[in-house]
Design brief:
mainly alpha, 85 residues
Length: 85
């Protein structure tokens, strides 16, 4: 895993934690900075990055991207976009 991929994974884990805290959080966390960070990190990935990971990140399928980076891509359900999970 590259350094950028590791940073993406840590950001995705933080996003997941914040989303899960939303029902009881007061005030609600601002997720926009995390989305911006993920967009910027995605732009930094080299062309040889795994196509599935790039697909998940470009489609904002952040849970699928997290599972992929955790080595759990087999847990990803097939999507509606044809050919990718």
């Amino acid at each position: 895993m590259t350094g950028t991929e590791e940073t993406i994974l840590q950001t995705l884990i933080e996003l997941d934690r914040l989303v899960k805290s939303m029902p009881t959080a007061n005030p609600k966390p601002n997720l926009l900075p995390l989305f911006s960070r993920l967009d910027e990190l995605t732009r930094q990935l080299p062309p040889q990055t795994a196509p599935d990971l790039m697909h998940y990140l470009h489609k904002k399928s952040y849970e699928k991207a997290r599972l992929f980076l955790e080595g759990r891509d087999a847990e990803n359900a097939a999507g509606n976009c044809g050919g990718h999970r």
